C-alpha cells in the first residue's frame, strides 16, 4: 500500500541523498524518489510500521526537510509579515505551527517557527518548497535586513514517534523530557553530543520528539537511539507509514490538501491565521473569514468498499463533480478507508453523505470530524 503522494514519483536520476542513505539501504528499505531526494518509503512493511508507531516507538529519517535560521533585531517583524500566526506569542523554547500566505489567497507553504531568542528564530519548511520558501522570505527581508541562513543541507532530522519515545530518548539525555509541553523544545546533550535541538513535535499524533543534529552526528545518534529503544521494539519507519499516520490525524499535506490555490480559511487553518496583526494578504483572508467560504476541507469515511485517492472526484447523485479528494488511504487503525477533500460548505457538516467516484462507480462516504482517531 503506497500512499497517494508517492504514487506519482519523479523519474529524474539527479536525486539527492540524506546523510543516512547507506544505513537505510543496508536495512533493506525500499527507496523511492520524493521531493528531489531518494527516501525510504518502507522497511518491513507499511502496516507493521504504522502499528509500531501507534503502539510503541519508531524512527523516521525526515532529513529532506528544510531548515532556515533568521537572526536580527527585526526578525520578529519579518516573521510577523510573512507568516499567518502571531509570532509575538512565542517565547524562548516555544514552537508554533504556521503558514506563509501568498498574495492571491493561497498558501506558499506550511511550516514550524521556533523561537531561539528575541532576535533568533528557526524555521522548518517542506522539502519540496525549500528554494521557493527561501526566495519568498528573502523578498520581504529586503525591508527588514535580517541575517538568513539556509541550514537544510547540513542538518539531519530524526523523528522519534510513539508512546514509548519519551522512555527511549530519556536514556540518552539529562534533559527532563517528561516536563516538555507539546510544541516546546530544548537544546542540550543527547547521546553525548552537545547543542542538540529536541522538539516535542511530530506528524503522527502518536506523541514523541523531533531531533535536529548536524549531518556528521546523524549516524551516531541514529545508532544510539536504536540501542536505547531495543527493549521497546523500536523500528525504522518509512514515508508510507508517515502518510497513513498523519492521515488518521487529519494533518494537512502540502501539495495535496493545501497549496498555492487553497486558502487557510478553506483548509480549516483559521486557528493559525491570526488577525491580531497585519501580514501578507491578511485583509483578503480576514474578509473571507467574515463573509464565509464557498468550500471547505473535510474528512470523510467510506461507507462502500473502495479507497479514495488524491484527485478523485466527489460527485452528486447525477454524477456531476462537486469537489475533489485531496488525500485518501486505508486506515490501519480503523480498518476502513478514509479521506480528505474540498466540498461545498453546505455539505461540510459531519454526518453528511457524499459520493466519491472510484473506478467509475459513485461510492458512498460520510463526512466525519477530524482527527479520525483520538490523539
What descriptive keywords fit this protein?
375 residues; alpha+beta; Gyrase A, domain 2; Elongation Factor Tu (Ef-tu), domain 3; 6-stranded mixed sheet; 6-stranded antiparallel barrel; 8 helices
Report a brief summary of the structure.
The chain has helices at 21-26, 46-55, 75-82, 130-141, 165-170, 215-229, 239-249, 282-291, and strands spanning 16-17, 30-34, 37-42, 58-61, 66-71, 95-101, 107-117, 120-125, 147-150, 155-161, 185-190, 193-199, 208-214, 235-237, 295-302, 313-315, 321-331, 336-344, 353-358, 361-368. It is α+β, with helices and mostly antiparallel strands.
Please give a structural write-up:
The longest helix is centred in the middle third of the chain and has 15 residues, at 215-229. This protein has a six-stranded mixed beta sheet with strand order 11-12-13-10-4-14, sandwiched between helices. Strands 15-18-17-16-19-20 form a six-stranded antiparallel beta barrel. The chain has eight helices and 20 strands. The chain has 375 residues and is α+β, with helices and mostly antiparallel strands. The model has no long low-confidence stretch (mean pLDDT 96). Strand 7 and strand 8 form a beta hairpin. Helix 2 packs across helix 7 (239-249). The chain has helices at residues 21-26, 46-55, 75-82, 130-141, 165-170, 215-229, 239-249, 282-291, and strands at 16-17, 30-34, 37-42, 58-61, 66-71, 95-101, 107-117, 120-125, 147-150, 155-161, 185-190, 193-199, 208-214, 235-237, 295-302, 313-315, 321-331, 336-344, 353-358, 361-368. The chain is globular and about 65 Å long. It starts with 15 loop residues before the first strand and ends in a 7-residue tail after the last strand. The chain has two domains: 1-292, 2-Layer Sandwich (Gyrase A, domain 2), CATH 3.30.1360; 294-368, Aminomethyltransferase beta-barrel domains (Elongation Factor Tu (Ef-tu), domain 3, Beta Barrel), CATH 2.40.30.
Amino acid at each position: 500500500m503506497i500512499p497517494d503522494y508517492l504514487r506519482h514519483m519523479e523519474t529524474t536520476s539527479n536525486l539527492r541523498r540524506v546523510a543516512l542513505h547507506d544505513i537505510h539501504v543496508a536495512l533493506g528499505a525500499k527507496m523511492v524518489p520524493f521531493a528531489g531526494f531518494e527516501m525510504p518509503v518502507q522497511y518491513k512493511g507499511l502496516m507493521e510500521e504504522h502499528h509500531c508507531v501507534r503502539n510503541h516507538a519508531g524512527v523516521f529519517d525526515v532529513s529532506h526537510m528544510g531548515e532556515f535560521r533568521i537572526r536580527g533585531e527585526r526578525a520578529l517583524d519579518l516573521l510577523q509579515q510573512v507568516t499567518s500566526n502571531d509570532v509575538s506569542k512565542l517565547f524562548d523554547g516555544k514552537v508554533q505551527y504556521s503558514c506563509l500566505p501568498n498574495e492571491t489567497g493561497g498558501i506558499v507553504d506550511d511550516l514550524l517557527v521556533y523561537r531561539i531568542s528575541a532576535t533568533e528564530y528557526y524555521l522548518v519548511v517542506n522539502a519540496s518548497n525549500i528554494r521557493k520558501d527561501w526566495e519568498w522570505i528573502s523578498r520581504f527581508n529586503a525591508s527588514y535586513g535580517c541575517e538568513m541562513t539556509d541550514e537544510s543541507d547540513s542538518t539531519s532530522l530524526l523523528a522519534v514517534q510513539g508512546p514509548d519515545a519519551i522512555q527511549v530518548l530519556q536514556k540518552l539525555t539529562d534533559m527532563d523530557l517528561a516536563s516538555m509541553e507539546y510544541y516546546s523544545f530544548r537544546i542540550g546533550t543527547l547521546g553525548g553530543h552537545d547543542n542538540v535541538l529536541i522538539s516535542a513535535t511530530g506528524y503522527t499524533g502518536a506523541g514523541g520528539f523531533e531531533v535536529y543534529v548536524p549531518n556528521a552526528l546523524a549516524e551516531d545518534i541514529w545508532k544510539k537511539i536504536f540501542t536505547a529503544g531495543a527493549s521497546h521494539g523500536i523500528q525504522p519507519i518509512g514515508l508510507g507509514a508517515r502518510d497513513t499516520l498523519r492521515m488518521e490525524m487529519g494533518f494537512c499535506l502540502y501539495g495535496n490538501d493545501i497549496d498555492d490555490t487553497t486558502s487557510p480559511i478553506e483548509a480549516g487553518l483559521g486557528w493559525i491565521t491570526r488577525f491580531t496583526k497585519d501580514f501578507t494578504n491578511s485583509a483578503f483572508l480576514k474578509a473571507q473569514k467574515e463573509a464565509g467560504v464557498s468550500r471547505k476541507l473535510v474528512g470523510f469515511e467510506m461507507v462502500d468498499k473502495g479507497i479514495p485517492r488524491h484527485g478523485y472526484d466527489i460527485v452528486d447523485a447525477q454524477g456531476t463533480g462537486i469537489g475533489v479528494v485531496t488525500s485518501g488511504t486505508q486506515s490501519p487503525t480503523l480498518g476502513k478507508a478514509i479521506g480528505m477533500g474540498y466540498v461545498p460548505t453546505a455539505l461540510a457538516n459531519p454526518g453528511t453523505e457524499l459520493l466519491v467516484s472510484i473506478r467509475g462507480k459513485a461510492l458512498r462516504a460520510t463526512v466525519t470530524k477530524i482527527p479520525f482517531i483520538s490523539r
